[in-house]
Each structure stands twice: as structure tokens, then as C-alpha cells.
Amino acid sequence: MTDLARSLDFYCDILGFIVIVPTHTVDEFNFRQAIIYLGSMGIDLCEHAMNSAEAFDPARTGLDHLAFSVSSYDALMAWAAYLDAKGVDRSPMRRVEGVGEALDFRDPDGIQIEL
Fold first, then answer.
1. pLDDT for residue 45
2. Global pTM?
């Protein structure tokens, strides 16, 4: 993360995560972190002091994107309307072979999130 506070706002406000471990510094690794939780999933968000604030690139080794499932097509349509109402840019609906309908949007660091 290039700005941990901004990322926490996004993941909590837009996606509904809750903070279970507040922002703190991990001196031995020289980064700040917070842990967020939604349902049965936790995500460790980290802001490394050595981060040069370069843009996220899914072609580099590491994370390509995050994908979350939704319960139905109607739920996906509700997410699309919700993202639109929140002013979050998103892709049009598209068909993913073997999965069904999907849409994409990006977090503040440009990490793609797929529903």
C-alpha cells in the first residue's frame, strides 16, 4: 500500500471490512500494518517504508488481482449499482468462462478487484 490510511478507508467503506488489528508499526521489518476482516477472511494491509510509491503492476511477480464471489447474479447487479453510487469506476459486466458474470474495479493503489 502506498497510503495505509487511504487503503483502510477504501476497504472498510467500500467493501465493508472491519479493522481487527489497528494500524501499528512493525519495527523489525520497517513497515506499518493493519489487519482487516470480512466474513471468514482477513487481509493484512501493509505500508512499507521502502515503497517508492510506484504504480501497481499485475505483470510483476506477486499479486495479479483479488477475486471475491457473490451469491447470485442479482447480488452482482446490486454490487454494480452500489459501486456506481459510491463513485467507484468499474468495468462493464462480462462473462467469465466456467465462472459466470463478473465485473472489476480497482483499489486506491490500482490493485484489481473482481466480483
1. 92
2. 0.85
